[in-house]
């Protein structure tokens, strides 16, 4: 079925976006498969399988330890960007060794996931080079798992993200584990709005700490010229409760609503469904991505 939506120009902010819009169509191009590489539906967290047992254990820890104070502390610590200096591509290569324990759909090294999603977008939207690079960049924050970053445990690097400082929405995966999170019993943090005001904007919300927020910080602090929509995708692509289930709308402002359109395209088609066993020849596509990196990022970034 053809589903076409009006998209604001990614390079404009809300003030100017309505004057420049382009039509992109969600049908055609990359065909969304029904099953993941293990023959199960995508993001099926309840199906009994060995992989799902470890995914469940991952979320048990994640939901207990991610508190408002913890996330704020991590943001401060990593906001200093004093851990490393390296190019964006060097970071892609570092991710070669990591497998994401939160992911029921993929057990390939992360660099494959980055290139699989970027290459699928490149085929469908050949002219939106910023969008190809967004895909390549979106999960690079998982470098927090690397020993040179202190080898953070998986529960504070990967997995879906959610707002802290206010009540946990039921639509967050494995919601039941939040009952053992200290914030659930703290009256400052366990009401619908908690520490926030209605429609304060996601920019003002403290999300659970992980690769999204970290990579957003790195890209911004290193003065990327990627458009605002790219930064929004990088920052909120794991916030499934919001972009898939429509929860937490009371925290969003108009700007967020506009950016959501790009996030939907990225998530509903590419981030999730391009995960496959068909591997990309890294050396073959490397020159193209190096040219994009050169266009949108400095040669060396502070991490
Ligand atoms: O397991 C996945 C994976 O860690 C992704 O990188 C993240 O963006 C998803 O939201 C998460 O559920
Ligand atoms: Fe991710
Ligand atoms: Fe991803």
TrEMBL record:
Binding site for substrate: 43, 100-102, 142, 159-160, 237-238
GO process annotations (BP): inositol catabolic process; L-ascorbic acid biosynthetic process
InterPro entries in alphabetical order: Inositol_oxygenase (IPR007828)
Location, primary (coarse class): cytoplasm
GO cellular component, one term: cytoplasm
Pathway: Polyol metabolism; myo-inositol degradation into D-glucuronate; D-glucuronate from myo-inositol: step 1/1
Keywords, comma-separated and alphabetical: Ascorbate biosynthesis, Cytoplasm, Iron, Metal-binding, Oxidoreductase
Naturally occurring in which organism (per UniProt): Punica granatum (Pomegranate)
Catalytic reaction annotation: myo-inositol + O2 = D-glucuronate + H2O + H(+)
Cofactor(s) this protein requires: Fe cation
SUPFAM superfamilies noted in UniProt: HD-domain/PDEase-like (SSF109604)
Cofactor comment: Binds 2 iron ions per subunit.
The encoding gene: LOC116208976
One Pfam entry name: MIOX
Family: Belongs to the myo-inositol oxygenase family.
Record-listed E.C. numbers: 1.13.99.1
Binding of Fe cation, residues: 113, 138-139, 211, 237, 271
Statement: the UniProt record of this protein carries the keyword Cytoplasm: yes
GO molecular function, one term: iron ion binding
Subcellular localization(s) per the UniProt record: Cytoplasm
Identification of the protein by name: Inositol oxygenase
């Amino acid at each position: 079925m053809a589903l076409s939506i009006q998209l604001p120009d990614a390079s404009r902010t809300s003030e100017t976006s309505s004057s420049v819009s382009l039509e992109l169509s969600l049908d055609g191009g990359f065909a969304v498969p029904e099953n993941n590489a293990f023959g199960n539906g995508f993001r099926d967290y309840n199906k009994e399988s060995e992989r799902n047992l470890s995914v469940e254990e991952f979320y048990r820890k994640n939901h207990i330890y991610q508190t408002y104070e913890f996330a704020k502390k991590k943001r401060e610590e990593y906001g200093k960007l004093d851990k490393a200096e390296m190019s964006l591509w060097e970071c892609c290569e570092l991710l070669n060794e990591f497998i994401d324990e939160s992911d029921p759909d993929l057990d390939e090294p992360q660099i494959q996931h980055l290139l699989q999603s970027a290459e699928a977008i490149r085929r469908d939207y050949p002219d939106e080079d910023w969008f190809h690079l967004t895909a390549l960049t979106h999960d690079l924050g998982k470098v927090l798992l690397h020993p040179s970053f202190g080898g953070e445990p998986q529960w504070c690097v990967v997995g879906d993200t959610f707002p802290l400082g206010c009540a946990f929405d039921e639509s967050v995966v494995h919601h039941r584990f939040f009952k053992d999170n200290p914030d659930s019993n703290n009256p400052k943090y366990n009401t619908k709005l908690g520490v926030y005001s209605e429609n304060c904007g996601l920019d003002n919300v403290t999300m659970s700490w992980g690769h999204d927020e970290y990579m957003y910080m790195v890209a911004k602090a290193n003065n990327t010229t990627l458009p605002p929509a790219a930064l929004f995708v990088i920052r909120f692509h794991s916030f499934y409760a919001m972009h898939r289930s429509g929860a937490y709308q009371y925290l969003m402002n108009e700007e967020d609503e506009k950016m959501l359109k790009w996030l939907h395209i990225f998530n509903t088609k590419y981030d999730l469904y391009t995960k496959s066993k068909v591997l990309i020849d890294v050396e073959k596509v490397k020159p193209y991505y190096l040219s994009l990196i050169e266009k949108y990022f400095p040669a060396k970034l502070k991490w």
